[in-house]
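Supplementary notes for students who missed Thursday's class. We covered one full example, reproduced here. Read the sequence, then the structure, then the short commentary at the end.
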Amino acid sequence: MPIALVRVDNRLIHAKVIEGWLPIIRANHIIIANNTIAIDSMHQALLKLATPPNVKLSFLTIKDAVEAINFNKFPNDRILVLVKDLQDMLSMVEMGCVLESINIGGLYYSSGKVEVARNVYLDDKDVEILKKISSRGIKLEVRALPMDTKLDIMDIVIKNWDRLRGRS
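Structure (token representation):
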């Protein structure tokens, strides 16, 4: 079960994922890792509508997603793992999910967040989560689409956080 990409994106399945990433990474299976969506049949139905018919779609709890990744539960699939937010991603990492890198693709604006890259808005809590994930040796890159320049989010945050937050 090769993991083609692990992506944090508030919107989960949308055009950038389906048209931009899937053909490039050649994933034939999408895993949505989120405790709420894993039991929400209405949300699942909406996400299924946006998924191509030739792509398998699984809705797993955070715990089940970690087990699927660590124990190769889908050995014949190329997998795109989609996680809704950084807290869920941190939970996966803290449960022992074995990952080399994570793509931060879309963390959208809400009150108190500042833009650090295109379509990526963070607050102090998000930065602390990124630091915790990064401290485990996991590379954190920002890229909306595969043809975009890969940016190390920790370079952006560590060097510029006070300035971005208006504290310089």
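Commentary. Helices lie at 15-25, 41-49, 62-70, 86-94, 124-134, 153-164. The radius of gyration is 16 Å. If anything here is unclear, bring it to office hours.
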